[in-house]
Write a structure and sequence with these properties.
CATH architecture of the largest domain: 3-Layer(aba) Sandwich
Number of helices: 12
CATH topology of the largest domain: Aminopeptidase
Radius of gyration: 21 Å
Distance between the termini: 54 Å
CATH superfamily of the largest domain: Zn-dependent exopeptidases
Helix content: 40-55%
Shape: globular
Structural class: alpha/beta
């Protein structure tokens, strides 16, 4: 508990842990955990689960406190996200600003180093950090090259195979309907991290992830959003789906929200995560018809 409160305090979410109640997970602590989860695009549970604790661990890193380089497992943290933002502001494309130091971030850093007459090693050395600080954008609101590419249509929704993953009647029925198509991959009852790894390994064009939650009313469509960026393609696709579903009879309320759930953060392609509670059979078929249309659009030209 003391370590948790110290980490929240370091993020200016709590007072310094110095009193006798430091070991008590009280109502105030729940509120602080929820505030952190909100800032990180996580479900507001007030519970410090594994994902929340991992994001707290990542939040402690500031740019310059460690070397950043391509390794396995990949380095993660707020320092990586800050590096990605700085590179993107200068016109070097690190891929999605997700706080994960992957190959795109390494390539962007190498290109920056090359432009500064430094060794293009793809490692954030002290010399590279000093060069970044010297030429960094003067305005924090300067646009990112990743957003500009997305808005300009340079990175459109890809044409290729589709991964269906998760649990619940929606994905099970959709898998039965589309499972015989060569370019549809199905992974049921796996963790979000396992599904993301499979999606990246198969280099699919679209991931549709599903999760049944008892407390969810209606249908919630989530796309990637966190740090300084979000998936424009994911937002457009989720909004289009929501608009279509909203005009169908008997379909419950549909919400669209940007989040940073593991399946959305870990995947490198457009991903939509669908959360829903109990779904009536009539509604089930209507939703599946809409999702079938999305899948067919993505794989049609690929076939």
């Amino acid at each position: 508990m003391r370590e948790l409160k110290e980490r929240l305090s370091a993020l200016a979410l709590a007072l310094n842990a110095t009193n006798e109640s430091d070991d008590v997970f009280d109502v105030e602590t729940v509120a602080l955990v929820e505030a952190f989860q909100r800032s990180r695009g996580l479900p507001l549970t007030g519970v410090v689960d594994l994902t929340t604790w991992q994001r707290l661990e990542e939040a402690r890193w500031q740019l310059g406190q460690r070397l950043l380089y391509l390794t396995s497992p990949q380095l993660r943290g707020d320092d990586v996200a800050e590096l990605q933002v700085l590179l993107a502001q200068l016109g070097f494309n690190p891929g999605r600003v997700d706080g994960i130091f992957g190959s795109a971030s390494s390539d962007a850093l190498s290109e920056f180093q090359r432009n500064c007459a430094l060794e293009p090693c793809g490692t954030l050395t002290k010399a590279s950090l000093l060069a970044l600080q010297r030429v960094r954008a003067t305005s924090a609101n300067r646009s990112l090259v990743t957003d500009a590419r997305d808005l300009a249509g340079f990175d459109p929704l890809a044409i290729g195979s589709v991964l269906l993953c998760g649990d619940g009647p929606l994905v099970e029925e959709l898998a039965r309907t589309l499972g015989d198509i060569d370019f549809v991959h199905v992974l049921l009852n796996t963790t979000q991290e396992e599904a993301a790894l499979a999606a990246n390994s198969h280099d699919v064009a679209l991931v549709l992830s599903f999760q049944t939650l008892e407390h969810v009313e209606g249908i919630h469509l989530h796309y990637w959003a966190n740090y300084r960026s979000h998936s424009h393609r994911g937002e457009i696709l989720a909004s289009s789906l929501a608009s279509f579903l909203a005009h169908l009879p008997d379909v419950p309320r549909v919400e669209v929200t940007g989040m940073a759930l593991p399946i959305l953060r870990e995947t490198t392609m457009t991903t939509i995560h669908v959360e829903h509670g109990d779904v009536a059979e009539q509604v089930l078929h209507q939703v599946i018809t809409a999702l079938e249309g999305v899948v067919e659009q993505v794989i049609h030209r690929f076939e």
